[in-house]
Amino acid sequence: MRVLLVPLLVVGFCWAGPIVDTNYGKVEGFEYENAEVFLAIPFAKPPVDDLRFEKPESPEPWGDVYQATQFRNDCTPHYRLVAQFSSYSGEDCLTLNVIKPKKVEKKLPVLFWVHGGGYEIGSGSQHGYEFFAKRYTPEGVIVVTIQYRLGFMGFFTDGVHGNYGLFDQAAALKFVKENIEHFGGDPEQITIWGYSAGAASVSQLTMSPYTRDLYSKAIIMSASSFVGWATGPNVVETSKELAEILDCPWERAKECMKKKTLHEIFDAVEKQGYTTGTIDILRWSPIIDGDYLPSNPEKLIHDAPVKPTLIGMSNKEGSYFAAMNMGRVIADFGLSQDELSKVDEDFISEIIGRKLLYNNRYGENREKVWEELLDYYVRQGKPEDEKLQNGFFVNRYSEVR
After folding, report:
1. pLDDT tens across 157-190, in order?
2. Using the 8-state DSSP alphabet, how is residue 345 labeled?
3. Which of 85, 104, 163, 210 is the most buried (most CB within 10 A)?
4. Containing structural domain, residue 283
């Protein structure tokens, strides 16, 4: 018996993954090439039951070693079909992933990635961990990807409270600030980074009094807090309408909706409709709540500390929505692959009229605005070579969207 026991212990030891001791307990990950990977680490209590439609709370310490070896729940999207695409989707989803080099000889810079998806779909697992491990760990960079509540779960408001998805992002950033040193990271070198709605979120992180002192640099790719949909004008009305469909009195809508099943809320969302069909494209997005965003972006950016920031646009971003076949899930701007190949001057002109000038928008100035929009989006810079025109108008379509 003694002869057999020793090799078994040795084998068990050899299979143990890397372990890091955080402020909340130990986490065990795994090795991938030259990286150590830790998946689905909880940065907040599960936002379920009484914590649904509430700000996130710090996680309870865990006693046993937490097995951070696989992705877990994605956050519930606003659209039932998207939830069905995922084998793991649910409300208990406030987790983050850490991809770090195996060998750490000094404190390393950190990239804090916020996913996009129109504040309504997306996850911290959608890009996996392999790319980050291959691209960034050889350069001595730690990557953190996060999740936050989406759609009605993240941005329902009772007119006073809301922006739960943004508070989730703040909680994740605070967790990283306080724990990344255990992984070999430098809490004074955190670059927050995002694309599309993730970029708008990063822009909001740079401005909010909750988060503007928790990072060192920012990368904002293809959106910002200044785009119209980043602080949706229709969220309060959308919330009222959803509460009414669910027979929840507005004066106690939040408490009533805490008791509704996810199935009941999805049914109500389907009755309500997923999109607005206007240039104010999102039903669910952040609001100026007097708390996380205490004022408008113009005021907040003036008050925020000046830090190195890289801002850019993505070329032909509209093609992404066709490739993902998810455009109409987020907004009525989605295109199929076939439609994308046929985008031309007439198509863009029609989009401008239908999406930007709806309901007699701009009143007596409508024709003047119409001509200026056509000049910019249709006429200026149009290539003479017809073979190049589709790419040109796809890019213009991305800008209109």
Report:
1. 998 899 999 999 999 999 999 999 999 999 999 9
2. H
3. 163
4. 18-307
